[in-house]
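Students often ask why inverse folding is considered easier than folding. One informal answer: many sequences map to the same fold, so there is more than one right answer. In these notes we will look at a single instance of the problem. The structure comes first.
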């Protein structure tokens, strides 16, 4: 692993080298520590929400005397799999239709439920709507380039009413440094340049505000062999 401080150590004094070693340690420890802390926190939050709903005789701490973190997550995963298996059957589909018909009669609940359902289906159930390709587009005007993610080919009324002779692509243009927000734009296919980099690498480029490139090299330096 290389760090931004490696090339400078040979030209610096003892204190400066110690400082650079400390900063290098921060660079190494911070991502690992924050990742572990985030996972630990999320698992604990799930446990705190799920375990009170589990009968006491099914909880492991009743038999081993300690509360194992992650047990609630396991219960949630098992319960979700069972619900999904039942929902795919004839009886499950009938129950879901009956429940949804009851929800449709509740004005406020109906709006909340339909919104959450659409988001869930978009994120988890529709594989063809996932971002599979990173692209380069001219936005917000000609001559300015932005990273985008191709979601799908535009269909229906959008294509019919758009004043274009060819097809349209739905492109999500994320914001920096938070790529979860952005803009949905429709571009003619010929105006979209598909990139070889993966979606993950493109996301890193957006989040880092252009500081982290997919090849891991400084873009200001010449390529190898030159």
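Output (designed amino acids):
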């Amino acid at each position: 692993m290389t760090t931004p401080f490696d090339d400078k150590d040979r030209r610096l004094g003892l204190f400066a080298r110690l400082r650079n070693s400390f900063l290098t340690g921060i660079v190494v420890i911070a991502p690992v520590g924050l990742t572990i802390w985030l996972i630990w926190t999320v698992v604990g939050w799930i446990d705190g929400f799920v375990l009170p709903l589990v009968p006491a005789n099914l909880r492991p701490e009743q038999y081993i005397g300690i509360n194992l973190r992650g047990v609630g997550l396991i219960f949630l995963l098992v319960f979700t799999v069972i619900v999904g298996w039942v929902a795919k059957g004839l009886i499950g589909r009938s129950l879901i239709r009956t429940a949804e018909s009851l929800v449709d009669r509740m004005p406020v609940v109906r709006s909340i439920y339909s919104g959450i359902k659409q988001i869930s289906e978009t994120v988890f159930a529709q594989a063809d709507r996932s971002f599979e390709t990173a692209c380069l587009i001219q936005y917000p005007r000609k001559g300015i380039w932005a990273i985008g993610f191709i979601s799908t080919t535009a269909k229906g009324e959008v294509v019919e009413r758009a004043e274009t002779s060819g097809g349209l692509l739905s492109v999500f243009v994320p914001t920096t440094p938070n790529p979860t927000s952005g803009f949905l734009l429709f571009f003619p296919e010929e105006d979209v340049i598909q990139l070889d980099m993966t979606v993950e690498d493109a996301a890193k480029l957006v989040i880092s505000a252009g500081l982290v490139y997919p090849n891991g090299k400084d873009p200001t330096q010449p390529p190898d062999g030159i």
